[in-house]
């Protein structure tokens, strides 16, 4: 049994569902015959680092980075010592522009996860060097269910949707009791079309403070 703290009880119906058992069967074969990221023990890190009770914001990514040493179960995040991908560099540029944080040396976003930001990819695994290679295995059903669970069972969560894939999840979220922030993806291909200047970091904290929730410390340099 995977120990995911206070997520265990909430995710139990998913982990026993026939659709999840198909995902699991698929993953066993993939990890056996191919190089898959992240490491199987890191697949559910977003839940380990951000307990359900602590979720203040949900940042949606697409699928994990597919190069060596990058992915570790948190969307947009790379492990210490790994070069920051272009999208992450742009995220940090917007962070500095928005709230004045200095640019971090590391692209590891674990601190955000511990601050209450669920760093959820819509697919939780990927085959090496093959983007979206696991996007059809059933992960969308699983992560859509997680988004709906948060929407239904919590209040005043900020959902940060960057790019078409993330924005397609908007219908799963109850906008009457949560805050939804949308923009184009931070990739170099689209960042100048609305990501830069979106101010989603400060807007997240403004919303949380308005609802009596402690703000997120986005500064990764401390």
Largest pleated sheet: 4 strands, parallel
Helical stretch tally:
8
Query: Based on helices, strands and strand pairing, what is the structural class?
Result: alpha/beta
Q: How many DSSP-defined strands?
A: 6
Low-pLDDT residue intervals, each spanning 5 or more residues: none
Order of strands, widest sheet: 3-2-5-6
Radius of gyration: 17 Å
Shape: globular
Query: In sequence order, what are the helices and strands, one letter per element?
Result: HHEHEHHEEHEHEH
Helix content: 25-40%
Nearest-integer average pLDDT: 97
Strand content: 5-15%
Task: Give the terminus-to-terminus CA distance.
Answer: 35 Å
Write the layout of secondary structure elements.
Layout: H1 7-15, H2 18-33, E1 36-37, H3 45-49, E2 57-61, H4 86-99, H5 110-114, E3 117-121, E4 126-127, H6 139-153, E5 158-162, H7 164-167, E6 179-183, H8 200-210
Parallel strand pairs: 2-3, 2-5, 5-6
Antiparallel strand pairs: 1-4
């Amino acid at each position: 049994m995977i120990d995911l703290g206070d997520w265990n009880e909430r995710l139990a119906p998913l982990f026993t569902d026939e659709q999840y058992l198909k995902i699991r069967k698929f993953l066993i074969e993939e990890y056996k015959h191919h190089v898959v990221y992240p490491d199987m023990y890191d697949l559910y890190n977003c839940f380990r680092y951000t307990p359900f009770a602590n979720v203040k914001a949900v940042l949606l990514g697409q699928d994990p980075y597919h190069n060596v040493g990058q992915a570790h179960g948190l969307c947009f995040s790379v492990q210490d010592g790994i070069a920051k991908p272009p999208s992450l560099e742009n995220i940090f540029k917007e962070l500095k522009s928005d709230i004045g944080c200095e640019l971090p040396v590391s692209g590891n976003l674990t601190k955000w996860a511990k601050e209450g930001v669920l760093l959820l990819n819509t697919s939780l695994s990927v085959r090496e060097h093959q983007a979206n290679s696991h996007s059809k295995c059933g992960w969308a059903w699983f992560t859509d269910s997680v988004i709906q669970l948060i929407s239904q069972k919590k209040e005043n969560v900020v959902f940060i949707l960057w790019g078409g894939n993330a924005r397609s999840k908007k219908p799963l979220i109850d906008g009457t009791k949560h805050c939804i922030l949308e923009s184009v993806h931070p990739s170099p291909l689209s960042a100048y079309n609305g990501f830069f200047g979106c101010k989603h970091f400060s807007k997240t904290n403004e919303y949380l403070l308005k609802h009596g929730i402690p703000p997120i410390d986005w500064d990764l340099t401390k």
